[in-house]
């Protein structure tokens, strides 16, 4: 895989612009780039078993043309799709950042609060307060005093009173933060508990880049008593733009036991500074992506690619990419296999048979018929 192209794919999908805001042209560009990156000319594979109670669901998905996306917290890896961080250390980092930047934090409260925060006794006091608040630099939290005084003077407020307003506003902010430390605790909690939210709101369809993995045949096909589905992503060239918009969320999983701890401070800084620093957002998003797409090294045998979607209303997603089925010879004469082969003939899908060669201690794959 071309690393430079793949990095471009990640920056595009996990970058500054939300995918739902992509134009049709941008979706098509991202889709065409993905097709260049996928292995096997665009083909990925899913291992399945013939176990009763499971096969019926797998067959229905094949026949009806949909993919079933389980939530990340339903996957077989307890640490799939999580952020790696030290909760105690990160809670302290977040708390310190908020306390060190009380004006930025207060400005954010004003922006996101449903109820306006008022200061003083009159509408003039409240208006003056808002004028002063507009003079805080979102990058460093410092007040531009000369700008604030000019605005207050234009309102007809005398110079001495204008200076007093500025001191009062600054004091009010400091006192407000000290009196509302529980709000900071809530902010910290919302970040610290984020893994539960991430795992319940993200939906994963996992595939492998190979159909020849003996461990996967043993692990996911009930000890070789199963089949493997071939998905050809080039079939989606004629899909409508909304289906392509989902498909471009396809990524290769990385495997590493040593993952750098994630920090929420960059994302928090981006939020509190007015969501204006695209570089800060890009760094936070790419760090987030690296964490969510990294699994522990002992899963590396899966050679996984996955489609990851968020906040689905239905686990069934109408995406039909099937182009073939591979069946192990040991179950070739079962009713389930015959049912699959019949569907393959109906849909013009290829059928390969996985055969064991004891002489060479290997498997060979032959086209049926």
Question: How would you portray this structure in words?
Answer:
- By secondary structure, the protein is α+β, with helices and mostly antiparallel strands.
- The protein folds into 2 domains: 3-80 and 202-264 and 276-367, no CATH class; 87-192, no CATH class.
- The chain is 47% helix and 16% strand.
- It has 15 helices and 12 strands.
- It has a 5-stranded mixed sheet with strand order 1-4-10-11-12. The protein has a 3-stranded antiparallel sheet with strand order 3-8-5. Strands 2-9 form a two-stranded antiparallel sheet.
- Strand 10 (322-328), helix 15 (335-347) and strand 11 (350-357) form a beta-alpha-beta unit.
- The protein is elongated.
- It starts with a helix and ends with a strand.
Please, how many helices? 15
Estimate percent helicity.
Answer: 40-55%
> Mind telling me the C-alpha Rg?
28 Å
Strand order, sheet with most strands:
1-4-10-11-12
Basic shape: elongated
Mean pLDDT, all residues = 85
Major sheet characteristics: 5 strands, mixed
Given helix and strand content, the structural type is: alpha+beta
Query: What's the end-to-end separation, in Å?
Result: 34 Å
Count of the separate structural domains: 2
- What is the number of E strands? 12
- The arrangement of helices and strands along the chain is HHEHEHHHHHHHEHEHEEHHEEEEHEE
Strand content: 15-25%
Instruction: Outline the low-pLDDT stretches.
Output: none
């Amino acid at each position: 895989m071309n690393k430079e192209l793949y990095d471009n794919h990640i920056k595009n999908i996990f970058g500054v612009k939300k995918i739902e805001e992509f134009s049709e042209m941008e979706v098509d560009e991202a889709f065409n780039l993905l097709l260049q990156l996928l292995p096997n000319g665009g083909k990925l594979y899913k291992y399945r078993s013939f176990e009763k109670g499971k096969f019926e669901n797998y067959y229905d998905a094949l026949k009806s043309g949909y993919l079933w996306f389980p939530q990340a917290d339903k996957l077989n890896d307890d640490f799939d799709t999580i952020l790696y961080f030290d909760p105690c250390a990160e809670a302290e980092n977040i708390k310190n950042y908020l306390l060190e930047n009380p004006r930025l934090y207060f400005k954010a409260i004003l922006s996101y609060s449903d109820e306006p925060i008022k200061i003083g006794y009159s509408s003039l006091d409240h208006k003056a307060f808002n004028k002063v608040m507009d003079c805080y630099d979102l990058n460093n939290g410092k007040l531009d005093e000369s700008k604030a005084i000019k605005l207050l003077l234009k309102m007809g407020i005398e110079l001495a009173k204008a200076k007093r307003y500025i001191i009062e506003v600054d004091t009010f902010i400091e006192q407000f933060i000290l009196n509302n430390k529980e709000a900071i605790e809530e902010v910290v909690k919302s970040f610290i508990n984020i893994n539960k939210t991430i795992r319940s709101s993200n939906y994963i369809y996992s595939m492998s880049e190979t159909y020849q993995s003996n461990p996967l045949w043993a692990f996911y096909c009930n000890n070789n008593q199963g089949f493997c589905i071939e998905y050809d992503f080039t079939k989606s060239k004629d899909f409508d733009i909304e289906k392509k918009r989902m498909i471009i969320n396809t990524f290769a999983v990385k495997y590493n036991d040593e993952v750098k701890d994630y920090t929420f401070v960059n994302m928090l800084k981006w939020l509190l500074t007015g969501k204006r620093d695209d570089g800060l957002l890009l760094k936070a998003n790419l760090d987030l992506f690296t964490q969510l797409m990294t699994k522990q090294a002992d899963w590396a045998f899966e050679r996984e690619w996955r489609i990851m979607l968020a906040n689905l209303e239905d686990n069934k997603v109408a995406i039909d990419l099937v182009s073939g089925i591979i069946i192990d010879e040991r179950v070739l004469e079962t009713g389930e296999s015959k049912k699959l082969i019949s569907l393959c003939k109906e849909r013009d899908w290829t059928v390969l048979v996985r055969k064991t060669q004891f002489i060479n201690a290997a498997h060979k794959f032959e086209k049926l018929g």
